[in-house]
Amino acid sequence: MNLKAALERYVPDRRAQFEDLLGHMVEIPSISMDPARAGDIRRMATMAVDVLNGLDAKARIVETGGYPIVSGGWMTGARYPTVTIYNHMDVQPAQEAEWKRDPFAFANENGIYRGRGATDDKGPALSALFGARLAVEQGVPINIRFLWELEEEIGSPHFAAGLKDREGIPCPDSVVVSDTIWIAKGRPAAPYGLRGLIGARLSLRTGSKDAHSGVTGGAARNPLAELMDVAMACVNAKTGEVKIPGFYKDVVPPTKAEVASFLKSGFEVKRFKEAYGFHSLRTEAPAEVTRRIWAAPTFEVHGLTGGYHGPGIKTIVPGQAELKVSMRLVPNQAPERIFALLKAHVRTLNPNVRVEPEGMLHPFKGSFEGPYIDCVKRAAKAGFGKEPAFIREGGSIGAVVTMQKMWKVPILFLGLSLPEHGYHAPNEYFDWGQASGGMKAFAHYFAEVAKMKTG
Fold it and tell me: Where is the Peptidase M20 dimerisation domain (predicted)?
């Protein structure tokens, strides 16, 4: 078996099929956080089964009590190792005014694939699938199963229920997640950790309706102002320091070796700012920026609602207001404990403010050493010409923590997206360079794992 030679023929031959499938997938608006899109979620699940079956990967829909999971793959031999590949088929909403075109009308611009979900996470999912198909065609002694979730963007609330279906989703020997972002084009990066998350809504009602500020102002309580005061008592807006008592108690800081690995990733402050449209940052030191975005907890304010939002000024005192916040968490912070700390702190600041949780995900930390990591290194080099840097991911993937807890098997990451692809942003896209490299990397990964188990 000459896998490298086979890939040189296989990848370009499959390009048209890859692009056609990705186009059809992108044009399904599988927005999990919009209840009105429940029919599109089901349509996406049905198409995903068809895609897997079309490549001879026996597939089925696994019901969860919420949105389903699609499970399918090739079981080539009971004595062979089994690898599960995780991706998700649900997407973020696409309502931003900055979209230059219909986000759910796929466009192929000479290998630039535009549309919501192209890079998060439908393009990477198909790249991994095509790499797996070649490995099977070449007789690699391995079992491969794909898990395509449809609730990742809402925190995977029913994923654990799906994993309990051991017939539809059997426990593997290891897992690879392909839902992460590199630091820079041309420099692969593989995370070994994810931050956790706890979201919250802080609401305050001080009246039954808006009131005239000229008649009531000065005597009336202003819930918008009071919630702003609460926010300032929770976080230093200039430095990012969280002021909630006990918040940092369980934080495990990164080691010197981890920080050194962060800096080997190709991270550049200038490129980071350009990719995300920042004019300035809280710090410009590369080591400190990477620590903050990958290995430190945060408190973020996402929105403040209430009062008047139209043109000009309407001179009212609002009767109610709501503050939307979240905290990213790191090992060993437990979201349940952090939420309790937030609630207690807000109670001392303003006992009239109601604090309600909005999603809760635990942090994850794996290893960046060992035989599976060596397989990731060799696979990335085969696909993209360089071994990956090992970093932590600043975001959260609820399914990863669930798989770790229920299966207790090694979980690796082999993401394919770039910062400029626009995760969760307007004008999202994927590209053939990353897709074709991903096919090669995954095909080699399966071959490497098979050698590790049989060699």
Answer: 192-352
